[in-house]
Amino acid sequence: MSGPMPEPRPSSSQRRELFDTLVANTWRDVRRFWRSSFTGAARNRENLRARIAIGLHFLEYGSALEGAKAGHGQEKANQLAADIDTFIAHFGPDATTEIALRTLESYLAFNDESGIDLGAIRAVVERHGNSRKSGLRGGVETVTADDIRRRGMIDFMSFAEARHSIRSYKNEPVPASSIEQAVRIAQQSPSSCNRQTCRARIWTEPSDIARITALQNGNRGFGDQLGGIAIITSDLAHWEHAHERYQAWIDGGMFAMSFAYGLHAEGLGAVMLNWSVTHDQDDRLRRLIDLPESELVITMVGFGVLPDRLKVPVSQRKPLDYALVLDAPLSAAAR
């Protein structure tokens, strides 16, 4: 049975106020994306770093495809080489250029016997190949299904079911090594074109935690027990097109979940603290932590040392048929 809900509708003036608030906040989002992204042209270091990451990812996955042919992605490879040249000239070598150069080396090796003229690419590799060598890699590697299964086949359902949103913590410091390991795990999250736009900005001093949690409306009754708080962000400077306008939220959400699982794997408790706010509240947090304008706040994650015994919400999951739609028929009329 369906029909209109019996709740009274807001008045016209109330609806107008709600609409105006929505438009004002949406416009702020649009303006931030326009100013931060490299729509039209790369304008700063992060924009160019992002374009390099996109270019090297294109070459990596192209070389990994079955039946990859000599000369594939040559235009992208030339652009990548030019971007590396520009980046090093303006900002010097860094991790991104090192990975990109290793990728171009792999690309040259793949095409070594093709007879294709890759002189411009080779010149960039020869010019900058030794500019930074810290062991970072690029290109492709061969793995086996057996190795993937051996390392990946854990009882993940049991692991996931053992994770709870924790709202009770011991008054003990969180080991820095555990925080670092959780962030390393979060870095393994998928990201669009492997751009890796996300950061975990973390505070463990009680006074700092208190100032941050005071701005978040969801930690009452336990915020003062937290051993640390992470603010997960994603940098809009790494995005280019209008169709990518929501991708920072998607990548940031995956990063945040992986971080929470990383804390769980370290034997720590954690709780997601949402940052669903209007821009006036967002601006207060930005001023407090001196957050660059290009970074979006995705969520907060509170964490700490688990007590020996505690109560948690049941948080019963819905039946599987609510979440799974398998092989639904497609529309014959769709084009």
UniProtKB/TrEMBL annotation:
Domain Nitroreductase: 161-203
Gene3D superfamilies: NADH Oxidase
Gene Ontology MF, one: oxidoreductase activity
Keyword Isomerase: no
Pfam family, one: Nitroreductase
Entries under InterPro entries matching the protein: Nitroreductase, Nitroreductase-like, Nitroreductase/BluB
Keywords, in A-Z order: Flavoprotein, FMN, Oxidoreductase
UniProt keyword Oxidoreductase present: yes
PANTHER family given in the database record: IODOTYROSINE DEIODINASE 1, NADPH NITROREDUCTASE
Name of this chain's protein: Nitroreductase domain-containing protein
Naturally occurring in which organism (per UniProt): Martelella endophytica
